[in-house]
Design brief:
- Helices cover 74% and strands 0% of the residues.
Length: 77
């Protein structure tokens, strides 16, 4: 698909939707793309990153295959 084709499809979908969540997400993607400089994270994001790093250090991680298997198990319930 060419760039003009993609733009046309996106415009059609944006015009057709009334889903505010989708529209806000699309808007945020474009806003993020246009930002320059360093991305600032908030305290909640910083805490989540710190927790994830601690889990990695404590070997509390899953391989991609393990995570996929757990997801498949959860979805089949």
């Amino acid at each position: 698909m060419t760039v003009p084709d993609i733009k046309e499809k996106l415009i059609e979908k944006i015009n057709a939707t009334t889903n505010t969540s989708i529209l806000e997400e699309v808007y945020e993607i474009f806003e993020f793309q246009e930002q320059e400089g360093i991305y600032e994270i908030n305290s909640e994001q910083r805490k989540a990153i710190e927790e994830a790093r601690a889990q990695i250090e404590n070997h509390q991680v899953l391989s991609n295959d393990e995570a996929n298997n757990k997801t498949d198990e959860w979805l089949s319930k």
